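Batch job 17 of 40 flagged for manual review because the log was empty.
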Amino acid sequence: MRLVANTERILADIERAEADIAAASQGVVGRVRVSAFPTGARALLVPALGDLQAHYPNLRVSMVDLEPEESLPALKQRDLDVVVTYEWGLLPLLADKGVEREKLLTEPVYLALPVGHRLATGGAVALADLRDEEWIVGRDSTSMLDLVVAATRRQGYEPRTDFHSMDFQVILAAVGAGLGVALVPPLALIGSYPNVAITRVSDLAIDRVIWAAVRKGSTANPGISAVLAALRAAAADVAERIPAPAAEPPAEPVV
C-alpha cells in the first residue's frame, strides 16, 4: 500500500510539473484528449467542444465515446486527459487517489415500461411489483447491469436479465417492443417513444451522478482547465432542464 501511495504521489507531481510547463506557454494551446459515455457525449461533451472551438482555436481536442469501465483506465494510463463518467447512487463510490473528480450534475433515474403494461397508468411504479418482469440491462461487468441488480435486490428479488445492451436507444426500442422493462436516466430520452411509458420509481430513490475526471495534479494545465470550464457550463445548462427526482418525467426530451 505504501508503494502504491508513493507511486500515485510521484505521478501527481509529474502532472503538476507538466501543467506548470503548459501554463508558461502562450495562451490555451496544445492538445487535450477527452472522452464521455454516449449520452454524456451528446448532451455535455459535444456542446462543450463547440464552445472550446469558438473560444480557443489553437487548442486541439480529440474525442472518443467510452463507458466508465473503459475511460477511467485509459485516463490513468495517460491515453486520455479528461473523461466524463458517471456513477449510480445505489452503487458504492469507487475512489481513486490518482484521479481528481468534479461533479457536473445529478439526474434522477426513471422506469421505462411498454405502453400497454398493466402498471403503465401514469403514476409512479414500485420496483417490488416488477419481480416477474424481464429486465433490459447493460452488459455483464458493467454498472448499467449492477444498478438493476442492486435495485431489485433491495426489493427482495433477483432480476431476470436475458437482454443486454449498452445503448439506451436499443434498450428503449426493446421496451417499446414489449421485451421487458428498464431503468433509464433523462439524458437518454432524446427522441419520441410512443410505445414506451416513462414514470417515476415509487419505492426507491435512484439517481445518476455525472463527473468530470482528470489525473491528479493536471488541473493547472490551461487546456485541461478550459475543457473543465466548458463542461461545467454545459452541465449547468442541462441541469436547468432536468426535473427534480420528485417531479414527473419531462414531457419533452432533454436536448
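Reviewer: the log was empty due to a logging misconfiguration, but the result itself is present. The chain has a mean pLDDT of 87. Unflagging and moving on to job 18.
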